[in-house]
Amino acid sequence: MRKTRKRLTPEERIEQIVETAEKLFAEKGFDATSIDDIAEACGVAPGLIYHYFDSKSEILRALLERKSLLPKMAEILAQPPKATVEETLTELGNAIWKMLEEKRELALMMHGEMQRNQEVVKIVGEIIRMGVKLLSDYLNAQKAAGILREDLDPTIFARTFWGALFESFFAHHRLASFVKRIPPKRLVSEVVKLLLYGAVNQKKLASGGESAR
After folding, report:
1. Do 49 and 121 belong to one domain?
2. What is the pLDDT along the chain (213 residues), one digit of tens a residue?
């Protein structure tokens, strides 16, 4: 007797398409994956994919929104006041690294695609801009509370924070044959301290020692 295939709800179908696309993007790359590939892997006709998504780019956007760290990021940055800025940024940095590690193949693929595909750059850029905005808002609040320097530019700080972590992650995996790997938690901690306190010995400066030349 022939089995009746379960009819998926619209939300279940969207989830199936996005999850399938994620696997194919990680395996083959964004450019090399077609709507037909996604449809075949889902066991449906290409027309059904277009019923839910206008294009492959829209599938990628949905994927990144669903897998985004933004909700977790907002939760971390809304911590009680007792958490110091260093503690908060360190937790955030470790969460970003963990997310990238869990989706390593996809993250590395996206990094490569961004070198040659402007559509991917645009989609990823939208997610990063939202992340920068969340962190900038948090830093502005700390600045208003007198915890951070009055002349600090929160947007530059946030962009540098994101950039340092992302590029460190990609170097950690792609340049492992050429550079010594640094344990992720130590790397995150050093990035946070460098951004917050700089490289100058603050105690020596405070005691009247020589300034950095």
Report:
1. no
2. 445 567 889 999 999 999 999 999 989 989 999 999 999 999 999 999 999 999 999 999 999 888 888 888 999 998 777 789 999 999 999 999 999 999 898 888 888 888 888 988 998 899 899 999 999 999 999 999 999 999 999 999 999 999 999 999 998 888 877 778 889 999 999 999 999 998 877 666 666 655 544
* Phi and psi at residue 198, to the nearest 5°: 75, -170
Helix (H, G, I), strand (E, B) or coil at 74: helix
For 199, phi then psi, to 5°, come to -105, -5
Question: Within 10 A of 43 (CB to CB), how many other CB atoms are there?
Answer: 10
**Taking the model in full, what pTM does it have?**
0.82
The structure tokens 């990628």 sit at 60
- Going from the C-alpha of 197 to that of each of 61, 66, 192, the distances in angstroms are 36, 35, 8
Under 8 Å CB-to-CB from 207, ≥6 apart: which residues? none
Domain that holds residue 74: 68-200
List CB contacts of 81: < 8 A, sequence separation 6 or more.
none
CATH number at residue 188: 1.10.357.10
Q: How far apart are CA 22 and CA 28, in angstroms?
A: 10
